Amino acid sequence: MRHVSWAHDQQFQADYANGDLYTHALREVARETGNEELQIEVATRESLAPNTDASDDETISIEEAYRIIGIDPDHIKFLQDAHILTTYHSFSGPANEQEQNMRSQALKVIGKQRKSEAILTAAAKDTHG
User: Fold this and answer.
1) All residues at 6 or more sequence positions from 96 whose CB lies less than 8 Å from its CB, including other chains
2) Radius of gyration of the chain from Cα atoms?
3) Rounded to 5 degrees, what are φ and ψ at 70?
4) pLDDT value at position 54?
5) Do residues 56 and 105 lie in contact, with contact meaning Cβ atoms separated by under 8 Å?
6) What's the CA gap between 95 and 109, in Å, rounded?
7) Residues 106, 107, 108, 111, CA torsion sign
8) pTM reported for the whole predicted model
9) Are 83 and 120 spatial neighbours (Cβ–Cβ below 8 Å)?
10) What is the pLDDT of residue 93?
11) Distant-in-sequence, close-in-space partners of 45: CB < 8 Å, separation ≥ 6
12) Which residues of the chain fall below pLDDT 50?
């Protein structure tokens, strides 16, 4: 099922506008196959989907979010998700848990703004373990 998940990620990133359609299709594959791991992954993806409700991460501007993870906001239009994640993961570790939470929150803001499943997943992993 890893290939199915990988294919979903690739298509989702290539066509953000139809991301809900791809996630729906992934949900159907998970349901039809009964694959528990894939069902959990779909539930996680859906929980990360941007919504219209205000949340705590909206208190960080997109520019500030990039600064928190060590990226100059003036250069973001040239960056791909992989570079953002590499920069985020290579950043020398935070001094405390509060700083790590702030970095994870910043990554979530970036992921929502970019509609990036990969960035949102990385943010969720750092937040939940």
Assistant:
1) none
2) 15
3) 90, 25
4) 43
5) yes
6) 21
7) positive
8) 0.55
9) no
10) 61
11) 23, 26, 117, 121
12) 52-57
